[in-house]
Amino acid sequence: MKHPFIAAALALFSLPVLADSSHGFAFGEPAPAAKATRTVEVVLKDISFEPKSLQVKAGETVRFVLINQGQLPHEFNLGDKAMHVEHQKQMIAMQGKLFTAGMNHEGMDHNQMAHGEHGHAGGNTVLLQPGQRGELTWTFRTSAPIEFACNVPGHYQAGMVGPLTIE
């Protein structure tokens, strides 16, 4: 039973970012933690976030401290609805490839996936195993309708998504 979780975690780390990291995202870009002007703790549960919504100011750099208190792997991903829909499709496709390749991951180019077009190089996503902590620091540029979500297959649809308002 542990092997599917490991395989799923590896699949999640290997998925497309949905943006060219050299250009960032319309709503902002990753930043070093030292630049943060505020820290916000977000708890990932099965199947919800606490808090349920987030508010930031345009120009603000926020350090998100993420704690997975759930029993499943969860993801904290910043993006608009369309980005989440695409990310979910890619996660499902990648998960299938990983499971069919077996635990030794034959035929998978992890270097390309980790650093090329199939990596989380955009810095807008953190995957956490149960009990794990992580961080994501982000500078928000302009007001935009975005969400924070878990795109592990089925989690977004089950309600693991919340609005992030940029004022």
From TrEMBL:
Record-linked InterPro entries: BlueCu_1, Cu-binding_ET, Cupredoxin
PANTHER family reported in the protein's UniProt record: AURACYANIN-B, COPPER-RESISTANT CUPROPROTEIN COPI
Coiled-coil positions: none
Protein name: Cupredoxin family protein
Keyword flag Metal-binding: yes
CDD domains, per database record: Cupredoxin_like_2
Keyword Signal part of the UniProt annotation: yes
Signal peptide positions on this chain: 1-19
Domain Blue (type 1) copper: 41-167
Keywords: Copper, Metal-binding, Signal
Protein's organism: Pseudomonas urmiensis
